[in-house]
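Morning. Coffee machine broken again, so started the prediction first thing and wrote up yesterday's gels while waiting. Chain of 133 residues, entered below exactly as on the submission form.
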Amino acid sequence: MFITKTNRIAVYSYLFKEGTLVAKKDFWQKVHSDEIQIPNLEVLSLMKSFTSKGFCRETYNWQHYYYYLTNEGIEYLRAYLCLPEDIVPATLKAATKPGQGGEKGESGNFKPEFAGEGGFGRRGGRDGYRGAE
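Came back before lunch.
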C-alpha cells in the first residue's frame, strides 16, 4: 500500500512519542484519531509492517490492536526521525511521582480503607447493623 511520507512521519512520530499505539479494527474508518488525522487503514498497514520487522509487539483484544514499541523499533525510529539519544518514548520515562492510593497512617505506612474491626469501612464491628434485642 502506498502511504505518503507526511502520513508515515505522523504515525512514526506519534508512536515514538507515546511508545504505544491503539488502533481499532475498522478498515473503513476515515480518521484514526484526534492525534493522528490519517485514515485508519494506513495506520494498520504501517503497524503490520512494523510488527513483521520486529520493531513492535502486537496484541489483539476486543476488536482493537495494541502495539508496543520494542528496543529495535526505538533505535529504528530514532534513526528515521533523526532524533538524539536523550529523547525516549513516554513508556520508558521514569514516573516522577509514584501513585498513592488510600490514606497513610501515623507511621507513614499504607492504611487501607477496610482495615480494622468489621472490615470495608464499617467502624465499630457488627453491632451497628444488628437490631436491639
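Strands lie at 20-24, 56-61, 64-69, 103-104, 110-111. Going to sketch it on the whiteboard this afternoon.
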